Amino acid sequence: MANFLVLDGITKQFKLDKGQVQALEDIHFEVAKGELICLIGSSGCGKTTLLRVIAGLEKQTSGRVLLEDKEIETTGRERGMVFQEPRLFPWLTLEENVAFGIKGRVEKKILQRIVQQLLEMVGLSDFAKATPKQLSGGMAQRAAIARALAADPQILLLDEPFSALDTQTRSKLQTDFLKLWQSTHKTCIHVTHDIDEALILGQRIMVMQASPGRITAIFPVSFSYPRCPDEPDFIALKKKLRDFIPPVF
Q1: Mind listing the pLDDT tens digit for each residue in 101-155?
Q2: What is d(CA 5, CA 204) in angstroms, rounded to the nearest whole number?
Q3: Distance CA 247, CA 33 (A)
Q4: Could you read off the pLDDT of 42-61 as tens digits, one per residue?
Q5: 149 Cβ partners below 8 Å, 6+ apart?
Q6: Taking the domains of the chain in order of start, what are their residue ranges?
Q7: How confident is the model at residue 249 (pLDDT cuts 50, 70, 90)?
Q8: Domain 3-78+153-244 has CATH 3.30.465.10
């Protein structure tokens, strides 16, 4: 497959009172269209900063981000982002939250159809009129994913979207997200600090290390979906990943 997204020599420095901090250094990688990449590493290694650069929320100090050979310089609707917290508007219903980013940009009937289809896709059709405070954490995060998909982005960027959830809910959402990706064929970059999650979801796993943030290893995950943590291939690759990632997150 041709490279869809290209990161070419990305570096990022932050200016602080005590001087400059090198957050990212000389990052190079490519992502194919429809690929699901997991970006993994310890806390503070620059995973979120890198994701924000791809999203256009942060400007890199040097290097280029290319989407279909066009350089990314700011935010755009071709990239949707899902954060650690759902960030739903508390005064809007679920359907209004999902519609928020495209309201006024499409005809009302089309908007209603898009919202209805997305709520069905994430299993929230029965909660269209609910407000965020009436939703569980897992439901709210599914709503956030639906909202990110409403503009039909080419790339979905996910910043540890399941990290605040309990183990059972997290496992359910991993399964749901995998089905969603398989049905939409969206290009996805999923940031996580959880090795099991990366192995359950990713077609490739990119390992980042800190000081400064850089890609130190890329592992293809060749075994088929759905993946079981008890399978020998899963266990063997998990062991390799642990050798690259510090045990304290």
Answers
A1: 888 788 888 999 999 999 998 999 999 999 999 999 999 999 999 999 998 999 9
A2: 14
A3: 32
A4: 888 899 999 999 999 999 99
A5: 80, 118, 121, 156, 184, 186
A6: 3-78+153-244, 88-150
A7: very low
A8: no
CA 7 to chain CA mean position, Å: 16
pTM: predicted TM-score of the whole model, two decimal places = 0.92
Residue 73 has pLDDT above 90, yes or no: no
Q: Are strands 187-192 and 155-159 parallel, antiparallel or unpaired?
A: parallel
DSSP readout, the chain? --EEEEEEEEEEEEEETTEEEEEEEEEEEEEETT-EEEEEE-TTSSHHHHHHHHHTSS--SEEEEEETTEE--S--TTEEEE-SS----TTS-HHHHHHTTTBTTB-HHHHHHHHHHHHHHTT-GGGTT--GGGS-HHHHHHHHHHHHHTT--SEEEEESTTTTS-HHHHHHHHHHHHHHHHHH--EEEEEES-HHHHHHH-SEEEEEETTTBEEEEEEE--SPSS--TTSHHHHHHHHHHHHHS-S--
Residue 15 main-chain phi, psi, to 5 deg: -90, 120
